[in-house]
TrEMBL record:
Sorted UniProt keywords: Chemotaxis, Cytoplasm, Hydrolase, Phosphoprotein
Gene coding for it: cheB
UniProt main location, coarse: cytoplasm
Catalysed reactions, semicolon-separated: [protein]-L-glutamate 5-O-methyl ester + H2O = L-glutamyl-[protein] + methanol + H(+); L-glutaminyl-[protein] + H2O = L-glutamyl-[protein] + NH4(+)
Function (record text): Involved in chemotaxis. Part of a chemotaxis signal transduction system that modulates chemotaxis in response to various stimuli. Catalyzes the demethylation of specific methylglutamate residues introduced into the chemoreceptors (methyl-accepting chemotaxis proteins or MCP) by CheR. Also mediates the irreversible deamidation of specific glutamine residues to glutamic acid.
Protein name according to UniProt: Protein-glutamate methylesterase/protein-glutamine glutaminase
Organism, as annotated: Aidingimonas halophila
EC number per UniProt: 3.1.1.61, 3.5.1.44
Record text about domains: Contains a C-terminal catalytic domain, and an N-terminal region which modulates catalytic activity.
Amino acid sequence: MSAAKIKVLCVDDSALIRDLMTEIINSHDDLEVVAVAPDPLAARDLIKQHNPDVLTLDVEMPRMDGLDFLERLMRLRPMPVLMVSSLTQAGSEVTLRALELGAVDFLAKPSLGIRSGMMEYGEVIAEKIRAAARSRPRQARSKNKPAPRPVEAPMVSSEKLLIIGASTGGTEAIRNVLEPLPPNCPAVMITQHMPGGFTRSFAERLDKLCRITVKEAQEGERVLPGHAYIAPGDTHLKLGRSGANYVVRLDSGAPVNRHRPSVDVLFRSAANVAGRNAIGVLLTGMGKDGAAGLLEMKQAGARTVAQDEESCVVFGMPREAIAMGAADDVVPLMDIAPRLMKLAAESGRAQRV
């Protein structure tokens, strides 16, 4: 008896996009479009009728805005939602808001050659739908719910570094790790799987929320305490050294684990350059990117942390790291920031024999 297919409902005001999504999704044996809708009001009835496993949702639609619909949906009937967004500055800001509201992930519409562009990313679309179907739907943080409690750091060596990797569900996970950090925390370097055009908006949004400075990383800049550096979309982020200083290195080389930026690339550079002065953190995400790199960091003397299954949107990358013995600690998301400050205050791990 074959396994049940993942049922998908596509909501988009473009008939072309609805047709392309149906063609792409139905070309995979384990996926099926059970219905399409031109707007959220039509989708509401179809959700009740078909009980889909995953919803793909356009942002800009008639009759009801995609964000308004998403907010109501996640409050009344939480389910895995993939946003379908344009690759524009405005599109990236709206998409980040959708992720805050509880969307699992997003698909970027190509700006040119929509049919050829969508078909080219057919496998990526299928993978994202599969990951969404396995994810834990979550509601947005309530407006009345306080932000994570700030944590403080004792005097920490400027040599210490926090090295973070994430994928699906990572934008909100990263926010939950960075928001409590104190202004004097160690420098933070972050690779989040994200296409070009989105990372600057992501960094700017975090910078407004956090006590530390958050920015998109730039080639050659010094890596300073109290700052977080996010890999630019479609570019590998590496840790480098210039004399006594840590510096940012950017690389447009081939994708690693099919990703650019790749978490493994960042983790390996930290293992090679910082060794036991680094603390590696692997957060929610599908696939295995970062698992091998986290093990290299541990073998180089770094302390290593993986997010626990219960708090992950998708427990893919942390699971792989834990399975290969790469994680010293497996920690719930809300406890990661205080754990990192505790580890940063401790002396570096003794070099292994």
